């Protein structure tokens, strides 16, 4: 069984039955005493391999890779970008953090700003939040009805299918944390003035909608898990496990592409630089 | 029967059975001796009404209007823009002429550059050529297979449905000219040095693919005519008839929206400017 299969959204998925603190791979799963250090080192090594493969992307001018990170506040989207993709050469790789839409963005359909940011050939793009907010926060706050939400699921499936059929590999990660874990992470941010920049009082207001968010996530994941754009549910109460799992799935997918540098030009070898 | 219904792509549409020189509305259809002058004046008047209604668009900040013009070389896309939309206030209206894609555009899916240009709320956008080139020239020159072309029809239907469901009114016009009419228009361009800037030797090469283009158009129109983004087949051998028909259909659609200026603010009436 591949690592992707282990974490792929299961049939009949129920978010409440999914343990956010599971340790299914690495030294942590094996119960090694020094598991944390071993798994961190392993993630670092995988990150290097991802970086090497991404260089081939750029050289081969193919394919397009889109990675989507979604999760509740404090679930570790920023941390994942740093730990898993921190070693990737920014040449040909970008992270896009979608904030609340601007007025110009609101005047267009909600996929407009997202489509502009999708990867080009040979590019790796990481979405920190994404068009999925339009079926999460938008639904939780009832800015849209259930019927409109269903319509959006269909738009999103269509959009991702088009991207896939035009050469984009799409991997979607739901960073799953427990309500208790969020509590302690928010408390930690409040306790440390150096972390206050990451805190928004709005986060506490959103936390009150915890159950509605869990429900919106469960529905959205089920409605938009497709063969061409699968969802992976990542147990994220442990940052170490989260990073190791995501890094492993990305590497597994990149290795499956069997990428190689474009063939050299024999004529070039004969050239002499004066 | 509305004018739109007269020109809407019929069931079992066959392009070769469609007379590009039909005169179905206006003084020309009635056989008036001064038909040309009368119909031109009528188009001008309709253009004024379109301009008035578009002002309400801007004021009301709704809806979004997308007009797509497609047709063979010399079919009169530029002329239509001038004759029908020439009086519209550029504030809130734009024409986008899609040329051969740039390298950056080719590195993305073919809807990427198109999506960027769709109308915002309260905006009227006219596409002079469009994403339809991706199932026309691309298919005629066999840059894509028949199966890929079918896939693109589906992408386009999905894309236009999403635009429609997020508030865009879409009207698509196929400017239908006969092969003889194209011959005389191309010859005319060659005879007049002042028109040489509009001539591209490539036009003659494309003309050799006339039958393949007719076939590609017929298939594309049939595959992408939908309730939310209908195709209108415009007899365009006569420029006067073409302009009158398109102007009439656009006006009819805008009038059906029953737009009105946003309500005034009674407080404003009491303000005194010193």
Automatic annotation (TrEMBL), chains A, B:
Secretion signal span: none
Keyword set includes Kinase: yes
Gene3D superfamilies with a match to the protein in the record: P-loop containing nucleotide triphosphate hydrolases (3.40.50.300)
Pfam families reported in the protein's UniProt record: PPK2 (PF03976)
Organism whose genome encodes this protein: Undibacterium rugosum
Gene Ontology biological process terms in this record: polyphosphate metabolic process
Domain Polyphosphate kinase-2-related: 38-256
GO MF terms, alphabetically ordered: polyphosphate kinase activity
Sequence similarity: Belongs to the polyphosphate kinase 2 (PPK2) family. Class I subfamily.
UniProt protein name: Polyphosphate kinase 2 family protein
Keywords, in A-Z order: Kinase, Transferase
PANTHER family membership: POLYPHOSPHATE:AMP PHOSPHOTRANSFERASE, POLYPHOSPHATE:AMP PHOSPHOTRANSFERASE-RELATED
């Amino acid at each position: 069984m591949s690592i992707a299969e282990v974490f792929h959204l299961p049939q009949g998925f129920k978010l409440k039955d999914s343990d956010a603190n599971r340790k299914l791979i690495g030294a942590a799963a094996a119960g090694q005493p020094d598991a944390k250090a071993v798994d961190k080192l392993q993630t670092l090594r995988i990150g290097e391999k991802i970086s090497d493969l991404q260089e081939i992307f750029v050289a081969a001018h193919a394919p397009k890779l889109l990675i989507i990170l979604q999760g509740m506040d404090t679930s570790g989207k920023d941390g994942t970008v740093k730990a898993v993709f921190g070693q990737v050469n920014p040449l040909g790789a970008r992270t896009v953090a979608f904030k609340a839409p601007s007025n110009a963005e609101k005047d267009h359909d909600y996929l407009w700003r997202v489509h502009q940011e999708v990867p080009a050939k040979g590019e790796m793009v990481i979405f920190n939040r994404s068009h999925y907010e339009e079926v999460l926060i938008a639904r939780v706050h009832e800015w849209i009805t259930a019927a409109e939400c269903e319509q959006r699921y269909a738009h999103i499936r269509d959009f991702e299918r088009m991207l896939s059929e035009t050469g984009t590999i799409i991997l979607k990660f739901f960073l799953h944390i427990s309500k208790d874990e969020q509590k302690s992470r928010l408390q930690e941010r409040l306790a440390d003035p150096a972390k206050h920049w990451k805190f928004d009082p709005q986060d506490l207001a959103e936390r009150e909608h915890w159950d509605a968010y869990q429900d919106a996530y469960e529905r959205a994941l089920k409605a938009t898990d497709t063969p061409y754009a699968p969802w992976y549910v990542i147990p994220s109460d442990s940052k170490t496990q989260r990073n190791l799992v995501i890094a492993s799935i990305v590497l597994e997918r990149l290795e499956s592409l069997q990428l190689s540098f474009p063939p050299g030009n024999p004529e070039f070898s004969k050239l002499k630089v004066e």
